[in-house]
Amino acid sequence: MAKGTRCMALLLLVGLAARAVSAVPDGLLPNGNFKDGPGKSQLNGTIVMGSHSIPFWEVSGFVEYIGSGQKQGEMILPVPEGACAVRLGNDASIRQKLSVTRRTFYSITFSAARTCAQAEKLNVSVASDSGLLPIQTVYASIGWDSYSWAFKAMHSVVSLAIHNPGVEDDPACGPMIDSVAIKTLKPPQHTKSNMLKNGDFEEGPHVFPDSPWGVLVPPMDEDATSPLPGWTIMSQSKAVKYIDSPHFVVPQGSYAVELVAGREAALVQEVITVPGRSYRLFFSVGDAGDGCKDGMVVDAYAARENLQMRYESLGVGGHRRAEVGFVAVGNRTRVVFQSLNYHMKPDGTLCGPVLDDVSLVSVRKRVARRLFM
Questions:
Q1: Where are the beta strands (DSSP E) in 305-368?
Q2: Which of 18, 141, 224, 337 is least enclosed, having the fewest CB within 10 Å?
Q3: Nearest to 22 by CA among 110, 104, 99
Q4: DSSP symbol at 146
């Protein structure tokens, strides 16, 4: 081969490799909404035939390209955030390579909808980091929910994969995926005025500006990277909802957390304390202005104390401030928040009390057991 030809071939390979790795500014991934789909020759009906048929994505297994309003039998498959989505059948996955900054934390947000299988789960992974996200509970009335997951980048190029580990009799009975986005997380630190990290919930996953249903933060292992920095969600299969002020009423700032799963999900943070020292825990409880009308109760725990803070919701927004005093009994103290009961909106979707503006301070003298404002 002539020298010039070899150079041209090398340049072509370098160019193709560069195109295969996507730069990742915060927001939607390249073709993250699957607007650019396979050519007609790369489709067998709805089934994607080639592993690189969808631009910027690599697919494997039984993957379908679904248009909004398409039917499966008598069931219409909606795609609320765009014109197209992908459906992952038995053991199918989609994958995209991303250029990232090493040792930086990132969160992934994507929208998913269950189709005909019941106990659907999705495995999201980057290298050895992975999380199995249960999606069988539907929280939004349209049947689609946005989910978040987080990882710490250990390399400058990583491969993000979303995989359906299920095996159904009908290979087409898998979840649909749409609108995959990324956000760089800046892990907050505690301050002199607040021992809790991210007590105002201003640091969290990407929220799609056109999605009025918030982002679910699913249960995670205690050692896992949290898309809601500083906080862990303890549950078997339920989530909490991360909400924003453009679409919901939040007590303070731009973001808050809605406790939508009753006692089945707890929001937890562990802090360093001094045994025998007194502390005060402050927080706001309200409603998201989303039509959730009920007598709501947030159960707050710290050391040996707990406070059941009641809020009468009219579904139009508003909040109350509360505090509880406790004496630390160990070197580490868990702060825990749960909704005491389940709540539903008139359309049958789950909702619950909103938690925001949480702070923990040390005090010199022993404080009263329970205090209200």
A1: 305-314, 318-327, 332-339, 343-344, 350-351, 354-363
A2: 18
A3: 99
A4: E
Copy the structure tokens of residue 150: 């987080």
Parallel, antiparallel, or unpaired for β 93-99 and 22-23?
parallel
pLDDT at 162 over 90: yes
Say if strands 318-327 and 370-372 run parallel, antiparallel, or are unpaired. antiparallel
Q: Does 57 have pLDDT greater than 70?
A: yes
Taken in order of first residue, the domains within the chain and their CATH numbers are: 21-185 (2.60.120.200), 240-372 (2.60.120.200)
List of residues 6+ apart from 212 with CB closer than 8 A: 247
Choice between 103 and 5, residue whose per-residue pLDDT is larger: 103
**Least confident piece of the model among 2-11, 109-118, 152-161, 257-266:** 2-11
Residue 7, SS3 per DSSP = helix
pLDDT tens sequence across 200-235:
999 999 999 988 899 999 998 877 899 999 999 999
Mean pLDDT (the chain) is 88
Helix spans in the chain (H): 3-20
Contacts for 168-171: CB closer than 8 Å, 24+ residues apart: 168/89, 168/90, 168/116, 168/117, 170/116, 171/62, 171/89, 171/90
